[in-house]
Amino acid sequence: MLMKTQVRDQNMSNIACSKCHTRKICLPMDMTEKDINDFESIVLLRKAIKKGNYLISAGMGFNAIFIIRTGFFKTSIISPSGQEHLLGFRMTGDTLGMDGIPTRQHLSDTVALEDSNVCVIPFTEIEKMASVSPVFLNHIFQLLSRELVRENFNLLMLQMSAEERLASFLQNLTKNLQIRGFSSSEVLLRMTRQEIGQFLGLKLETISRMFAKLSKSGVVSINRRHLHILNSAALQKITGIPN
Amino acid sequence: MLMKTQVRDQNMSNIACSKCHTRKICLPMDMTEKDINDFESIVLLRKAIKKGNYLISAGMGFNAIFIIRTGFFKTSIISPSGQEHLLGFRMTGDTLGMDGIPTRQHLSDTVALEDSNVCVIPFTEIEKMASVSPVFLNHIFQLLSRELVRENFNLLMLQMSAEERLASFLQNLTKNLQIRGFSSSEVLLRMTRQEIGQFLGLKLETISRMFAKLSKSGVVSINRRHLHILNSAALQKITGIPN
DNA sequence: CGAGTGATTGAAGTGGGTCAACCCTCGTGG
DNA sequence: CCACGAGGGTTGACCCACTTCAATCACTCG
């Protein structure tokens, strides 16, 4: 079933990580030319996901991890009480599906918020490669623990006030956009107020009000999904987190 | 400096994991006799930690992971605003210090809440063993992702009401005690109301009030640190999480 | 053009925070 | 052996940040 939706990319005879624009983000810094070639050889597939579609569903069997080439995703879980909670948003170069490693079963949903494109990396290949290349094994550890750091941060965020939460969300978002070479002052939000709220543990009305507040104080200007960061220093001041 | 506080256990000529009572919790199920013997050979040290002392400080260099033989710990981080937030409590058989793997530097503090005893496992040995034993490599993955699952759960918890948070804290605690063969109905709390609050994102007064509420409705009885779970089915009902 | 979804804004309600007083227990030292 | 102090816990009164409910607005897309 998975195979049916996977298609070999038509635009390239083979997948050249060494020439990919996300290289700097999805591969470890200290990989040699040879390491990269080895890695290329196990990234055999691309997969396109339309906006609104699931790349991963909770409970689904785990057999590959994904790296986002282009697009934007949200990851979420349904709480026992039936509410959806967002674990985070992922963009170009981010890894998806790591949470399936332990149990060989995915724990969370991953949905495309715009038409997207991912590389598919079979986990058996990853294991093989990790067992012969310490550099690569270390990279996998790094990826896993990057997740841990992210979640730690989210935990801290949930203890802040509504304004601080939204400010750190925006700070984080723009930092990630900047790292990837996108504009960090002019942003098209890919998610609804409701989704931001589900991520930050707030109601959509509160998100709207906090945007209004940040707007009134001249920190941002916002019109529906079009966001301008006018004063990123002020954002830092609100969160207390240096960039 | 680390060496100074590490002492070879005096009571045993060498450390026998195969005979240790925490074996079922800290080692993977599918380890062969040989695997266990190999593992034993790299667990060379024990370390005793007095109540109130740090086993790990944030920022400290990472070179070993620890497994709790006896005792009880809290792990915490200081937020940019200077507040202490608890990431969780750890008991017999739990692993400590995994968060240092990525950066080779610990991210959080770990403090003993009672006099405790841990096994010290040098990370270089773990890496060596992981590169030759797929079973062991897999175990390390399992441990890392167990952390991820735990944090996911904490995120969900922070979206619940005060009563629900305390109930799921108690549910979790008693489940863990039960797995380890302790009484799950009669518990001596190792932490203060303040620490429970720092973990659940609530103030200590709120914890006290919620204990009073659970007490009034006959779910628990509590006197300072002495807790009795009178109706664990009611706890489940409050959290909505089956056991 | 009209329906539907997402966003904004106001008014009223409430869960948990804040502040403060008081209690209990335990350890310490006169 | 008792007095004392300190730290942890409880409880009440009040407050406020966020939620809830509801009305209205603004795009977008059949």
Structure, explained:
The structure is a homodimer of 243-residue chains. Chain A is an alpha+beta fold and 243 residues long. Chain A folds into 2 domains: 150 residues, Jelly Rolls, CATH 2.60.120.10; 79 residues, Winged helix-like DNA-binding domain superfamily/Winged helix DNA-binding domain (Arc Repressor Mutant, subunit A). Chain A contains 9 helices and 11 strands. In chain A, a hairpin with a 5-residue loop joins strand 4 and strand 5. The first copy, chain A, is globular, with a radius of gyration of 19 Å. At the A-B interface, helix 4 and helix 5 of A face helix 4 and helix 5 of B. Chain A binds a DNA duplex (30 and 30 nucleotides) through helix 8.
What structural category do the secondary elements of chain A indicate?
A: alpha+beta
The biggest beta sheet of chain A reads:
4 strands, antiparallel
Helix content of chain A: 40-55%
Q: What number of structural domains do the residues of chain A give?
A: 2
Note poorly predicted spans of chain A. Answer: 1-13
Overall form of chain A:
globular
Order of helices and strands of chain A: HHHEEEEEEEEHHHEHHEEH
Largest chain interface and its two residue counts?
A-B, 38 and 39 residues
Name of the CATH architecture of the largest domain in chain A: Sandwich
Counting copies of identical and different chains, the oligomeric state is: homodimer
Please identify the top-level CATH class of the largest domain in chain A. Mainly Beta
The CATH homologous superfamily of the largest domain in chain A corresponds to Jelly Rolls
Task: State which percent range the strand residues of chain A make up.
Answer: 15-25%
Number of strands of chain A: 11
Biggest sheet of chain A, strands in spatial order?
A: 1-8-3-6
**Count of separate DSSP helical elements of chain A:** 9
**Spatial extent as radius of gyration of chain A:** 19 Å
Mean pLDDT of chain A: 87
